[in-house]
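Problem 12. The chain below contains 234 residues. Write out its predicted structure in token notation.
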Amino acid sequence: MTDQGPEKMCDVSLDSETNDEKEVTRLSFPVTEMGDTYYLVGGKTKLETEEKDTDKNSTSSNKKSASEEDSQTDRNAISSPEENQQASNGEEENTEMPEHTCTISIECSTILNNWGNLKQSKSSFVPSDGWIMGSTTVEYDPGETVYDVLYRVCRETGIHMDATYTPAYSSYYVRGINQLYEFDCGELSGWMYRVNGWYPNYGCSKYEVSDGDNIEWRYTCDLGRDVGDEYMGD
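Solution.
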């Protein structure tokens, strides 16, 4: 001790724990000497509740998890413009109409066997192998006829085609293809069409095309007998 007054000696802390409630009580105060007497000056109590802290941490963690889950749900619910466009394109692709196709060919090989009957002015229009157009797969729209397909193919490929409408038969009659007309190779010559191996006995603009049809335009020099038309052969 000095003459100057009380002197602080140290700080003392007392802890007590209650196991049932899991609480810790801590008393903290300074010890001061004055003469032969020691004084406890002031003091404060700190109550720590482990259970409350644990509950607080648990609640905070749950709130954070719920917030993260809501945020993830929001992100999943919002699609980017690119994703929306891809989904839209997928729907458009699924709604597209299927393609309808058939095959078509044009040949005049019978002229090669009847060259002597051919008009000399037409010889340059006859291919050396007789094929004006080999078998080609083309698209068509439902309801189109053999005439429609021939007309479009000739227009797209630049092959000459000449036809006339015959009111008596309510149908188009094909007079010439690739500058080769009826009667150019004899009085029984001209163009005929065959579908799937059969020669229809009506106009080409009345025959509606079906998927997979094989259409053949063939030049005959003998009213169909030389190209396998059994009906004409009888």
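Discussion. DSSP finds four helices and eleven strands in the chain. Students who got a different answer should revisit the alignment rule from Section 12.3.
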